[in-house]
Every structure is written in C-alpha cells, then in structure tokens.
Amino acid sequence: MAHTDYHYTKDGRYLCIILDDASRKILAAGEFDNKTSLNALLVLEQAICECASWGHPILAVLSDHGSEFYANKRDARGHGDHEYEQFLKERGIRQILCGVNHPQTNGKLEKLHDLYIKHRDRFSNLEGFVVWYNEEKPHGSLNFDIAETPSQAFVRKMRPEVWVGLATKLFEW
Q1: Per-residue pLDDT of the chain (173 residues; tens, 9 = 90+)
Q2: The whole model's pTM is what?
Q3: Largest distance between two CA atoms of the chain
Q4: Which residues in 92-105 are b (16+ Cβ under 10 Å) and which e?
Q5: How many CB atoms lie within 10 A of CB 11?
Q6: Domains of the chain, with CATH numbers?
Q7: In what order do the strands lie in the sheet with 26-32?
Q8: Fewer CB within 10 Å, N or C, the chain?
C-alpha cells in the first residue's frame, strides 16, 4: 500500500508524495505550482514505475477526499467521474480513503511533511531531500538497532517470490 497527499510548502508550492506503507520509502515526489489530479497522477506513475522495477506492485493507495484524488460529486449509486479514480481502477489498484477530517489516518505522510518542513532548505532540490530521507536517514519505526533506512527496509520487506525473480534475472546475465 502507498500513501499520498499534497502539502502546501512555505515557498507557495505544493508537494505531492507517494510513500510506501511498510518501508516508509518515498517512491516518488514532486513540487508543483498547482494542486491537481494531473500532477498527482504524474507522481503516481513515477511510483508505479519505481515499484515495477523491483517487481513490487502498488496494490492500494491511501488518500484523503481531496478533489485531486476523489470525485466529491457522486451519483445515486455512489459512482463519481474522476480521472485519478479511473486511473487506479484501470490498473487494479484499490483506493482507500482517509476518514473525513481525520488526518491521523495518513499519519505516516503527515510526519514526513513535518520532516520536509524542517529539512528541505538543506537541499538544493527535492531529489536531494528524497535521497537523504530514503538512503541516509535512519527511520525510528524501522530496525533502529542497525540504523535501517527506508530504502533498506523496502528491499528487506519484499515478498520471497520477488527475491526469486530478481535472482533469476541476475543469473540470466
């Protein structure tokens, strides 16, 4: 499962992140002038590609009820016409919605936003922040005894069949 949301930055832009639930790895991120479903889809497509390169598909996405993720106008049967929802449906990705006015549901991402606010100025670009967060900064909710980073946890938490597939590819070379 992946978490996604927008965060309004202090420089007047919008940060959109896709975060892996189990490892806390940032799968993709973007800073935009506008908070739109098209920008959210751009980041989601990057995350899907990142996971696919590891043979680790995104099965579900947790988001809030924001208009960039969800059609707030629904018909009598509860169906809405929204490009983000349609994109997920076409790819067999389940959409899970946070409780209304309950940001704690997406708390992992909310904590990441706090870290972004505190440390973003240390880096010349968003990519630098993402590399630091994923590759260098140990995460307290992971294996802190070995100072595990989100990238290390992402690899550790892969399903056994993914490891077998990766090993097979290595032997094919």
Answers
A1: 899 999 998 889 999 999 988 778 999 999 999 999 999 999 999 999 988 888 888 999 998 888 888 877 766 776 777 789 899 999 999 989 886 655 566 668 888 888 898 988 899 999 999 999 888 776 666 555 666 787 787 877 775 554 455 455 555 65
A2: 0.81
A3: 55
A4: ebebeebeeeeeeb
A5: 8
A6: 2-172 (3.30.420.10)
A7: 26-32, 14-20, 2-8, 60-63, 94-97
A8: C
